[in-house]
Request: fold
Amino acid sequence: MKRLFVINPNAGAGMRPRALERLERFFRGRANSFEAVVSKSREDVIFRTRRALQRGIEQIVAVGGDGTVNAVANGFFENDELVHPDACLAVAKTGSGSDYFRGLTRTAGRDWREIVLDPAIRRVDAAQVKVGGQAEPIYFVNMATFGMSAEVCRRKAAMSKHWPTSLRYLLPTVRGLFRTRQSNVRLTADGQTHERCAICIMVAKGAYSGGGMLFGKNVALDDGRFEVTLFRPLPVWQMLLKTPKLYSGELENEPSIEKLTAARVDLVATPPLLAEIDGDVIGDAPVSMNVVPGRLPVCFPRAQ
Reply:
């Protein structure tokens, strides 16, 4: 299999030269080859991924966090079509959150390198996103969030990489509870409109976000649906008490939290809610999202 590693040197704690040398040594020893590129930006990742697929690369390995996975996944598409329909996306567990990897494996202790070398390939859903009047869609594979959760991503990106991974998500989350603002939201799910006052909205195609918070408990990567979680305003002390439930996913019976499922979601908010997809902030304009079912070939672990 022709394989390319697309490496984000700034993901997680950073890909130091010595770590890159160990990575190359492992794959040269096991696969007798190692081809890699080090990315300079999100646009560079997308460009390099497309170029590699056009020249026949059969597996692209996203070595970075969820933002790197998102950029590589966007590189698989051009003009709404797969560049190389038989090529597959593999995901390294090297980011600070690695939430998409967590959703692929659903268990701890799986060595991502072994999945790269001997994958079970499945076609999963992607999600198209259009922001405002934007003509070309962008894609996400795990989670789109709006409001407080997007602000958490923005603050987390500004934190030092020396903080432990769990605190790089938890501290901005707690801080956000004290600074959050509410918006009047018109959310249309499969044609049915819901008008609410909300502080945060999660649109899940994958299970996890925020370093292990379980917002997509009832959604699968290949079921053609989103799981939408809408958070209404609450006093700060009540929100703090509910923080553990963000990790357990036990949110269904909370009166301040509403769950929906849909294949298409349109969102308008006043004042606008900041938006992010797979950890990357994309703005705060009105957003339309729809599931593209079973389009993207992804590497899963083989059954144990």
User: Anything to note?
Assistant: The domain at 3-124+295-300 is CATH 3.40.50.10330 (Rossmann fold).
